[in-house]
Amino acid sequence: QKEVEQDPGPLSVPEGAIVSLNCTYSNSAFQYFMWYRQYSRKGPELLMYTYSSGNKEDGRFTAQVDKSSKYISLFIRDSQPSDSATYLCAISRSQGAQKLVFGQGTRLTINP
Amino acid sequence: SAVISQKPSRDICQRGTSLTIQCQVDSQVTMMFWYRQQPGQSLTLIATANQGSEATYESGFVIDKFPISRPNLTFSTLTVSNMSPEDSSIYLCSVTSGRGGFFGPGTRLTVL
């Protein structure tokens, strides 16, 4: 069983829609959760970093963590064509200098 | 967030040869991480590079194939040795902090 599972998609939605991206993980030892955006031929860009159950909002992005279900989500409101990218969830066991375990990534396309 | 640069940004190599990838960080860090991203796939950790000690390799990766140097707290190199077409991937350098992981732009390697 993979440590973190993410539906690879692809996911295609119209501009302005709310996008929901999700990951599940298997080990409660993972306590820190991240979402990355990766454009084609670029390195991953950190979007959200959370460690508590609940919601964290940053502009049009909301990260949600449910540790009891081992389930994390990223919501994108008012989606724009520039949001078209691959989104990867990542988890780690502790804060600071720790390796990350990545989901498979979901390829998202926002259609004008 | 850390600023990470990598050289080269891309290369096309012949099988059986070796390529050394450089990673430079704009601040001193204890650990640096090397990831591989195969075409259409997510990121997989190759090894963790600590300054002044041997790198720690993940299952499936060996020092003879991926030797790593870490001469100081801001620089590391990864060598891909005796390359085959299966080594065609993006190689990414990363550091982590208390606010998540940060990545370089990647080195896109094609092995013919």
Topology:
The complex is a heterodimer of chains A (112) and B (112).
Chain A: E1 4-6, E2 11-14, E3 19-25, E4 32-38, E5 45-50, E6 54-58, E7 61-66, E8 71-76, E9 85-92, E10 101-102, E11 106-111
Parallel strand pairs in A: 2-11
Antiparallel strand pairs in A: 1-3, 3-8, 4-5, 4-9, 6-7, 7-8, 9-10, 9-11
Chain B: E1 4-7, E2 10-13, E3 19-25, E4 31-37, E5 43-50, E6 56-57, E7 68-72, E8 75-80, E9 89-97, E10 100-103, E11 107-111
Parallel strand pairs in B: 2-11
Antiparallel strand pairs in B: 1-3, 3-8, 4-5, 4-9, 5-6, 7-8, 9-10, 9-11
In round numbers, the mean pLDDT of chain B is: 94
Query: Unreliable segments of chain A (pLDDT under 50, ≥5 consecutive)?
Result: none
Mind describing the biggest β-sheet of chain B? 7 strands, mixed
Integer-rounded radius of gyration of chain A: 13 Å
Characterise the protein shown here.
The complex is a heterodimer of chains A (112) and B (112). Chain A has 112 residues and is mostly beta strands. In chain A, 0% of the residues lie in helices and 54% in strands. Chain A contains no helices and 11 strands. Chain A has strands at residues 4-6, 11-14, 19-25, 32-38, 45-50, 54-58, 61-66, 71-76, 85-92, 101-102, 106-111. In chain A, the strands form 2 sheets. In chain A, strands 2, 4, 5, 9, 10 and 11 form a 6-stranded mixed β-sheet that branches. In chain A, strands 1-3-8-7-6 form a 5-stranded antiparallel β-sheet, with no helix packed on it. The N and C termini of chain A lie far apart (38 Å). By secondary structure, chain B is mainly beta. Chain B contains no helices and 11 strands. In chain B, the strands form 2 sheets. In chain B, strands 2, 4, 5, 6, 9, 10 and 11 form a 7-stranded mixed β-sheet that branches. Chain B is globular. Chain B starts with a strand and ends with a strand. The mean pLDDT of chain B is 94. The chains are: A mainly beta (112), B mainly beta (112). Chains A and B meet through strand 4, strand 5, strand 9 and strand 10 of A and strand 5, strand 9 and strand 10 of B.
